[in-house]
Write a structure and sequence with these properties.
The protein is built from 7 helices and 7 strands, in the order E-H-E-H-E-H-E-H-E-H-E-H-H-E. The chain is α/β, with parallel strands linked by helices and 259 residues long.
Length: 259
């Protein structure tokens, strides 16, 4: 028996670094998983890998009609949604505000913020038909503090925190919980490969050495928290924010010899 037997889970950006980790874990725990995203080749390959309880659906999170079609496909295949994971996200090139191109600002907010808004809007009726459920927005430690050179990304993530709390208030009486996870620097292509329009990945100029847990995070670090938050074990948690960053937001830690 798995924690998510007979549950249907939709993960956006489901074939990406963190998304694929989430998909595999939910499937291992008994869930029907809907792998939603724009990379059809990777999405279908992952669906084939995890087996019969997986479905790939093409989803452009910035398109309301695409969301409607994705939820309809999920319900037609598996029944109403139990869990929505708003995981899809994009980054802007590292640029000061004064030289940030409007197209990057628009794209980042469209995917990271509007995409989650449209996801909540599309999924809420399905979650109600299920008798309740859980939405988790994957935010970022950049949504808790500022990060120079990443104004579009930071702005999108701060706004997503507010959206999370508002949705929790609106949907709580429908037995739908809404929470946020703030990952730190996680070892995925999002960090290890350059963003569109950028020459170097974030990993080229980031070091975890000063922090309490001196390593990059792994997708599984986020997945384990996600499984908890979307299970009955977290039934009293809504509108909450969970930081998983190895101590990044705490600031530099004492070296062992000095402690």
């Amino acid at each position: 028996m798995g924690r998510f037997d007979h549950h249907t889970v939709l993960v956006t950006g489901g074939a990406g670094g963190q998304g694929a980790s989430h998909v595999r874990a939910y499937q291992a725990e008994g869930a029907n998983v809907v792998i939603a995203g724009i990379d059809e080749s990777r999405g279908r390959a992952l669906a084939a890998e995890v087996g019969a309880r997986a479905l790939y659906v093409r989803l452009d999170v910035t398109d309301e009609s695409s969301w409607s079609a994705a939820v309809q496909a999920a319900e037609g295949h598996f029944g109403p949604l139990s869990v929505l994971v708003n995981n899809a996200g994009v980054q802007n090139p590292a640029t000061p505000i004064e030289t940030t191109e409007r197209r990057f600002w628009d794209r980042v907010l469209d995917v990271n913020l509007t995409g989650a808004f449209l996801g909540i809007k599309a999924a809420a009726p399905s979650l109600r038909r299920n008798g309740g459920g859980v939405i988790v927005n994957i935010v970022s430690t950049s949504g808790v503090g500022g990060t120079a050179m990443y104004a579009p990304y930071v702005a999108s993530k701060w706004a997503l925190r507010g959206l999370t709390k508002t949705a929790a208030l609106e949907l709580g009486r429908d037995r739908i919980r809404v929470n946020a996870i703030h990952p730190g620097v996680i070892a995925t292509p999002f960090i290890t490969e350059p963003a569109v329009g950028s020459d170097a990945p974030i990993s080229d100029f980031y070091s975890a050495e000063p922090f309490a847990i001196p390593r990059l995070g792994e997708p599984a670090d986020i997945t384990r928290a996600l499984l908890f938050l979307t299970s009955d074990e977290a039934s009293f948690a809504t509108g909450s924010e969970f930081v998983i960053d190895g101590g990044l937001l705490l600031g530099p830690a004492l070296k062992y010899e000095a402690a």
